[in-house]
Amino acid sequence: MKVEYHERGIYLPEIGLWLDSTDPCAATWISHAHSDHASGCHGLAIGTSVTLQLYRMRLWLGEEQTEPELRALDYSRSIEWNGAILTAIPAGHIIGAAQLLIEYQGERLLYTGDIKARPPLCGEVAEAILCDHLIIESTFGLPIYKLLSREHAAERIVRFARRCLDERSIPAFIGYALGRGQEIVHVLCQAGIRTAVHGAIARFLPTYEENGYSFDGWEPYDAKTMMGKALVVVPTHGSALEASGKNIRLAYVSGWAALDNARARTGAEELIPYSDHADFEELMELVDASGAKQVDVVHGYTVPFAHILKNRGYRATAPRHAGARTNVEAAEG
């Protein structure tokens, strides 16, 4: 199957379908609702029900734009599309995230989107799928990235929060607006810790609750009443907390916390290297399990990861434009 790589996304011309197009197009698959994969007002958007709900919540429509048509394709369900069979497979990344298996003229093409192989704090566990051609992300595609399991990450989050509260300081966790933020709130609430949540994170809590995650005891973030609570805020609010004059102690929960410069870059006291992306070992496990004859590496460390795969005997490429949209913050890692 012919695959075209563009800065705006990936295009399958034989079946007229984009994969995660960030510019308006006639029809696109949306793997998950992070803004570097789900943006643009499309003619038709295909994704899981949860992804489409979140995509619509984040979509801004201009005066002359009309509502996109949404077609739900939930896990393990298939639809026919221009002579191909499309099947959604759990990807583990955030709630609703899905891989797309495209079966066309005897070939199996698998697009992972952003993926996490180990069980996430919130979300379905990813499934490894056999395919002929694999398109896989490589946000953490270097051996230096060794990230925590969800159990160890939760333990570290709770321990830091309780230590700070016992010392009458205010623990503040930096989390992305969609995905990591809700995971941190869920962990803290499950541990019975009073938690104040930034509005950009709180707006998505009802969607998580509809999908089985509880957040008992959370309250809206209020700068005037922070004592005795853990805070969960978006990255852009971290500097404001540091400048507040209050006894704030920052924790950074991200795959990027594995880097040596993370403390200097974020001002965080506590670095918790947990991500909703696969680390290097997980990526290798996914590639091995796929049995793919061809592996295309997209987003992140595309060239070095493809080089590593070649050295291990895979036919691997890092297509031009494949990593164009990914940086430290856009990857929401």
Give the number of helices: 9
Strand order of the largest sheet: 7-8-9-10-11-18-19
Number of domains: 2
Shape: globular
CATH topology title of the largest domain: Metallo-beta-lactamase, Chain A
Helix content: 10-25%
Which second-level CATH architecture of the largest domain applies? 4-Layer Sandwich
State the assembly state of the protein chains: single chain
**Overall average residue pLDDT:** 93
Q: What structural class do the secondary elements suggest?
A: alpha/beta
Strand content: 15-25%
Give the CA-CA distance, first to last residue.
30 Å
Say which CATH homologous superfamily of the largest domain is assigned. Ribonuclease Z/Hydroxyacylglutathione hydrolase-like
- Number of E-type strands: 19
Low-confidence stretches: 325-330
Main β-sheet description: 7 strands, mixed
CATH C-level category of the largest domain: Alpha Beta
Instruction: State Rg.
Output: 20 Å
SSE string: EEEEEHEEEEEEHEHEHHEEHEHEHEHE
Q: What does it look like?
A:
The protein folds into two domains: 4-142 and 277-317, Ribonuclease Z/Hydroxyacylglutathione hydrolase-like (Metallo-beta-lactamase, Chain A, 4-Layer Sandwich); 150-272, Rossmann fold. It is 24% helix and 25% strand. It has 333 residues and is α/β, with parallel strands linked by helices. A seven-stranded mixed beta sheet has the order 7-8-9-10-11-18-19, with helices on one face. Mean pLDDT is 93; it is low at 325-330. The protein is globular, with a radius of gyration of 20 Å. It has nine helices and 19 strands. Strand 16 (248-253), helix 7 (262-266) and strand 17 form a beta-alpha-beta unit.
